[in-house]
Amino acid sequence: MIDSKAAEHARTASTDEVIAELRRRSAFVMVSHVKPDGDTLGAGLALGLALRSLGKRVHYYQEGLVPRNLRFLPDAEKVSSEVPADLPADALWVFGDMSDTGRAGEKLPPLERQNILNIDHHLANTRFGALNYVLEKECSTGTCVMHLLRALKVAITPEIATCLLTTIMTDTGGFMHSNTTSEVLHLSADLIAFGADREEIANQIFANKRVAAMRLLGQALSTAQLDDDGRYCWTIVDDAMLAACGADGEDTEDIIQHLRAVDGVEVAALFKAFDNEVRVSLRGNGRINVQEAAARLDGGGHFRASGLTYHGSVAQAQGAVREALRAEGL
Ligand code: AMP
Ligand code: MN
Ligand code: MN
Question: Which protein residue has the closest C-alpha to ligand 1 atom 20?
Fold first, then answer.
């Protein structure tokens, strides 16, 4: 049943409504999703920098650590897994780049909807905020933030530009994915003019690999399987492989893009079997909606990039994922 209040919440907030709320509040907590990427962190840091320039108090909440390759982001050292004890009751919690609050982890204090702003670009966002600035056509949460900053008329400093260009380069795969529209390239050009260093960001987020990550990539690719007449490519990474390579979870980032790049592949899957759960990444090449496939198993994401966490054995996860993909047309 949809009551009028729920329908009101489901509505996408206008840019003017969001900036009015940002102006009204004096304290903010920027919340990024677990296993943070350059979009969730860059969007929160950019908005935080802008709000601080307006004299606001800003905190950054992240359940885990900032990954090694994102510590170059301006203010990354301010990101914390603690909520300040003296936070005012009317602080606005700004969730960036997540389709539901669960993606922020399990350690957040209970929050009232009226204190939540949801800025996102995922499909099937659950509209958990009082205001939901959910722009599914945007390439990154960072470009949603960029629209807000333009409306707020704050100066885009080189630091803000660096955070925002990082969100774009992260979620477009360095301008390679299908979400790299002409508008995205124009926004990126503006950010470079404002002082973002594209080469430095590319080095930080796409190079800078530890040799352990390369060894792990080699193992994961050498054990990859092709199924469904070559349309489905998948591989497994587990704790033993990490240990053998001296790698950790952060060293798994690049693997899936190589699986998707195999000629004829329509869907790629990476099964990460760590700590008694299986985190699955899915990537599609445009025919199969991997967001719908992930949603069948309580995950989510985008048409061409999605993920889920499976509670069970890796063999069970493989079976369930294949079934979900077949239901979506694999
Ligand atoms: P990943 O494969 O972890 O890079 O994630 C790809 C996309 O799927 C991102 O947009 C994530 O936000 C989304 N995603 C990953 N894991 C989950 C999950 N457990 N639930 C919902 N969305 C997810
Ligand atoms: Mn993300
Ligand atoms: Mn994103």
Answer: 299
To the nearest 5 percent, what fractions of the chain are helix, strand and coil? 45, 20, 40
Q: Are strands 305-310 and 277-284 parallel, antiparallel or unpaired?
A: antiparallel
Amino acid identity, position 248: D
How does pLDDT run along the chain (330 residues), one tens digit per residue? 344 566 777 899 999 999 999 999 999 999 999 999 999 999 999 999 999 999 999 999 999 999 999 999 999 999 999 999 999 999 999 999 999 999 999 999 999 999 999 999 999 999 999 999 999 999 999 999 999 999 999 999 999 999 999 999 999 999 999 999 999 999 999 999 999 999 999 999 999 899 999 999 999 999 999 999 999 999 999 999 999 999 999 999 999 999 999 999 999 999 999 988 999 999 999 999 999 999 999 999 999 999 999 999 999 999 999 999 999 999
Pocket perturbation via mutation, ligand 1, pick of 121, 235, 251, 306 by most ligand atoms within 8 A of CB: 306
104 Cα to the center of ligand 3, angstroms:
14
Is the Cβ–Cβ distance between 39 and 170 less than 8 Å?
yes
Stated pTM of the model: 0.95
